[in-house]
């Protein structure tokens, strides 16, 4: 009995040293995890990429009515009073700008959490976005100045500099006449003679007054919206107090300020969870603190081993006990932390639906990443606790041999050949084997309405985000293109403007800028977005060469003569691919398979012309359609439009898009591009018009999944 008590007294120091070392090892493990997750800006941007955050910003948030309402009332620091401006954000703020903003936000968050700053400057967070918008404006200005004479180009540059110097507060509160009137009048006076300048200024004044009255009305609506937000409407900004937004109080953050507030004014008391977390994050990020814990842990482990040696206890078993104790403590700590962590949805419930969904997914990934890393740490400590006793002198050689064998086996695994044999590929046409035997007019295909009008190609009021070839990669098989010569003052101004006012403005436009040579793809004025016709046709040809089992249709709204169109197709090398429609517009079409075998894989229609090239017939000799001037989704019906109401024609064009204020509304596109919406309307029109659509034209093909709808219709659904 006395021997047992003596052994207990001898072992007690070892137990205390072991427990202390295990506790410090737990602290070191926790700080390492925090250092790799919470304190690392890259962990946040990784989670955002994993949640497809950048794509969802355009495809979900910008089409969410609640988020759009917040943007209109100033969620980005300045009210975006027009839906047209919101729909142009992918052009003004492309993905690189979003990535830069996300990286800046992650760095700002970690800076706050590590104690380097007491608050976060919203201006710093938004700077990549505003810089990108300014750069887009500079690009358009550069293009405009390239068409102007040198003196006018200098005056345009001076006008832009004067507008950039207008204080932000005046842009928010002043009317259009107040903000734009003086610099525009100075530009007009410097550019034209006194008489012409007086006439132009006389036309500008009423226009600016109308803009000013509209802005004032929208400002009243914004104030009302702001009051609504204060009373509980989900906001893009007000919930962004820590832990999602940090340092800036919700009320201050929701106000668009004319200048950046001081850090003291912007600071707020963080929620308790963030207050408890910040010291740990600061310690993990501090080399001094982290190094001190690392040295303390190493010292505690050495003391435990020394105590074991003095008392005759196995040092290997002592080391294993330290790792095992740390593993048990880490498991318990992890379970406790997981129980105390709030649900991601709880942290994001005040945000608009689309923003909350994205934020919840990002937080879920952050949680999962932290849980995985913590589990791996527990597993590593447990394995050490189990393996260390086996590493005594007599077992080392055996363990080393086993480790080498396992490593060799793992290294050889990728070299093991697969036993499976690839099945022979079936012949497919436009993505489906069953479509090869189907006539062209009986295959449903998705068309990109105004396919050339893309964010990627720099179009304002773009109808799609991605370039034409990416649209084809998505499954689009018809492209609706508008061909133009570069506009002059005469072609640019509306036909309803007549008399002396028209003459004055035509002369003014032609004096300032000149038309560019060549043929172009534009939607509206080419200065708002244009791409070279021949260059885009070459891109289509390269895509067809890379996809030899695909048939593509071009529907050309032709504002250039057929001879100019034929030259562009010849220069692009597409004459070899052109198909000739049946001579009889009501006659049968060949199957996709036969068109592919003959190499006639490009079908082209003109909206206005009718030949003389046999491959370039008028669309409406062959097709009927539904109306294309629709302002609301509920107005999408099956009424006949161009091409008549008869059933003899074999091609049916279903215009399935909404146009508001001459722009392709993203929110409406997200709604009407849903497969269920398209399929239901296609069958409704089939009953009324006698056939399924051949071509279904949509805006913003990247929203919804119109291509899936076409596949399901072709499958007989």
TrEMBL record:
Q: Which Pfam families match?
A: PI-PLC_X (PF26146)
Q: Which InterPro entries match?
A: PI-PLC_domain, PLC-like_Pdiesterase_TIM-brl
Q: Which residues cross the membrane?
A: 288-307, 319-341, 371-391, 398-416
Q: Which UniProt keywords apply?
A: Membrane, Transmembrane, Transmembrane helix
Which superkingdom is the protein from? Bacteria
Q: What is this protein called?
A: Integral membrane protein
Organism annotation: Streptomyces polyrhachis
Q: What is the lineage of its organism?
A: Bacteria, Bacillati, Actinomycetota, Actinomycetes, Kitasatosporales
């Amino acid at each position: 009995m006395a021997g047992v008590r003596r052994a207990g007294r001898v072992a007690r120091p070892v137990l205390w040293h072991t427990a202390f070392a295990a506790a410090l090892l737990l602290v070191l493990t926790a700080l390492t995890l925090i250092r790799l997750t919470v304190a690392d800006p890259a962990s946040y941007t990784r989670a955002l990429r994993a949640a497809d955050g950048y794509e969802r910003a355009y495809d979900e948030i910008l089409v969410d009515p609640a988020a759009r309402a917040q943007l209109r009332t100033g969620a980005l620091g300045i009210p975006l009073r027009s839906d047209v401006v919101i729909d142009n954000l992918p052009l003004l703020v492309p993905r690189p700008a979003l990535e830069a903003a996300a990286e800046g936000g992650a760095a700002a968050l970690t800076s706050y959490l590590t104690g380097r700053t007491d608050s976060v400057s919203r201006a710093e967070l938004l700077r990549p976005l505003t810089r990108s918008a300014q750069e887009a404006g500079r690009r358009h200005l550069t293009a405009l100045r390239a068409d102007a004479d040198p003196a006018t180009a200098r005056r345009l540059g001076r006008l832009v500099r004067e507008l950039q110097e207008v204080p932000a507060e005046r842009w928010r509160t002043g009317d259009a006449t107040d903000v734009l009137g003086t610099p525009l009048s100075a530009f007009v006076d410097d550019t034209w003679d006194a008489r012409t300048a007086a006439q132009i200024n006389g036309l500008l004044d009423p226009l600016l007054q109308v803009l000013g009255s509209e802005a004032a009305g929208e400002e009243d609506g914004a104030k009302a919206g702001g009051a609504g937000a204060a009373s509980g409407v989900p906001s893009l900004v007000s919930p962004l107090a820590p832990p999602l937004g940090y340092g800036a109080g919700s009320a201050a953050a929701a106000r668009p300020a004319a200048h950046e507030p001081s850090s003291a004014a912007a600071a707020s008391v963080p929620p308790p969870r963030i207050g408890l977390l910040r010291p740990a994050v600061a310690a993990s990020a501090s080399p001094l603190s982290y190094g001190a814990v690392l040295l303390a842990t190493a010292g505690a482990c050495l003391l435990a081993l020394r105590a074991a040696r003095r008392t005759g206890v196995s040092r290997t078993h002592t080391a294993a006990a330290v790792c095992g104790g740390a593993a048990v403590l880490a498991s318990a700590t992890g379970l406790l932390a997981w129980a105390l962590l709030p649900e991601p949805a709880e942290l994001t419930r005040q945000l608009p639906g689309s923003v909350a969904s994205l934020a919840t997914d990002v937080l879920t990934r952050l949680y999962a990443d932290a849980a995985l890393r913590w589990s791996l740490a527990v597993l590593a400590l447990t394995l050490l606790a189990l393996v260390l006793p086996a590493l005594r002198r007599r077992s080392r050689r055996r363990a080393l041999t086993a480790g080498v064998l396992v490593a060799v086996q793992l290294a050889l695994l990728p070299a093991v050949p697969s036993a499976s044999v690839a099945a022979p590929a079936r012949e497919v046409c436009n993505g489906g084997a069953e479509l090869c035997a189907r006539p062209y007019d009986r295959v449903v295909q998705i068309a990109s309405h105004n396919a050339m009008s893309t964010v990627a190609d720099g179009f304002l009021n773009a109808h799609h985000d991605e370039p034409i070839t990416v649209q084809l990669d998505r499954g689009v098989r018809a492209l609706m293109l508008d061909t133009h010569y570069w506009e002059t003052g005469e072609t640019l101004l509306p036909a309803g403007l007549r008399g002396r006012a028209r003459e004055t403005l035509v002369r003014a436009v032609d004096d300032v800028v000149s038309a560019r040579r060549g043929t172009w793809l534009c939607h509206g004025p080419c200065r708002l977005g244009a791409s070279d016709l021949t260059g885009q046709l070459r891109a289509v040809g390269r895509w067809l060469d890379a996809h030899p089992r695909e048939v593509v249709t071009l529907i050309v709204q032709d504002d250039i003569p057929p001879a100019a169109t034929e030259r562009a197709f010849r220069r692009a090398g597409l004459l070899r691919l052109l198909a000739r429609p049946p001579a009889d517009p009501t006659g049968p079409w060949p199957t996709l398979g036969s068109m592919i075998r003959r190499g006639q894989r490009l079908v082209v229609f003109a909206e206005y012309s009718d030949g003389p090239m046999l491959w370039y017939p008028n669309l409406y000799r062959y097709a009927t359609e539904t109306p294309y001037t629709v302002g609301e989704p509920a107005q999408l019906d099956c009424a006949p439009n161009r091409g008549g109401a008869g059933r003899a024609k074999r091609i049916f064009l279903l215009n399935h898009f909404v146009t508001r204020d001459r722009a392709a509304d993203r929110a409406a596109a997200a709604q009407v591009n849903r497969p269920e919406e398209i399929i239901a309307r296609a069958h409704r029109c089939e009953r009324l018009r006698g056939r399924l659509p051949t071509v279904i034209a949509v805006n913003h093909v990247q929203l919804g999944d119109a291509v899936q709808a076409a596949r399901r219709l072709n499958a007989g659904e």
